Amino acid sequence: MEFTYYGHACFAVKIGGKNILFDPFITPNELAKAIDINTIPADYILVSHGHSDHMIDVESIANRTGAKVIASFEVHTWFNNNGVSNTHPLNPGGQLAFDFGRVKCFTAVHSSSMPDGSYGGVATGFAVKSDDGNFYYSGDTALTMDMQLVPRFADLNYAVLPIGDDLTMGIDDAIGAAKMVGVKTVVGVHYNTFGFIMIDTEDAKGRFEQAGIKLLLPAIGETITI
């Protein structure tokens, strides 16, 4: 699978010729100022929750590309009322089949509200199962025992996990999450964007390595193959 990192917790995975974009937050991110969102391809956009640092660029990208937006019922409804019509609700426990594979929604332990302060439903994560491989994006979350349910859905190739601490899991809990979902490869996200979530990346890699897990930290704009 081709994995492209766009900064913070925004990334895209190319599966079966389709571009799946997650949690687009690019234009306000100073670290991602070299990224032109008008060039980002998207067939689907998966949104984990309503905080602006996970969805601020959804409307622009979705309306330009025609991508279908997948999110919790409350986030889906909010987008319908704010200029994005091609959406589909997906709540924890539910799963959907697409032309690239199957997506199942899992609970994340995190807050969620929309940019206007309205209720954003529960925060979520997603597991994707496809002929090209399987992966789990936890979304913003604490370590939770519910992660034990993810391997029942798919035998994962890798997981995408927040590692910045303070607002989400930190390094130690992300290592615990990786063990719980049964992966030896993790892509770290949600770190070093703001003062709250600054980490020592070399220390993080070392601690993952000591646990027998490879931590990948691609540069913003970089595409890697996993």
UniProtKB/TrEMBL annotation:
Pfam families: Lactamase_B_2. Keywords: Hydrolase. Residues 7-190 form the Metallo-beta-lactamase domain. One of its GO terms (molecular function) is hydrolase activity. PANTHER family: UPF0173 METAL-DEPENDENT HYDROLASE MJ1163 (PTHR43546:SF3), UPF0173 METAL-DEPENDENT HYDROLASE MJ1163-RELATED (PTHR43546). This is Metal-dependent hydrolase. It comes from Mucilaginibacter roseus. The lineage of its organism: Bacteria, Pseudomonadati, Bacteroidota, Sphingobacteriia, Sphingobacteriales.
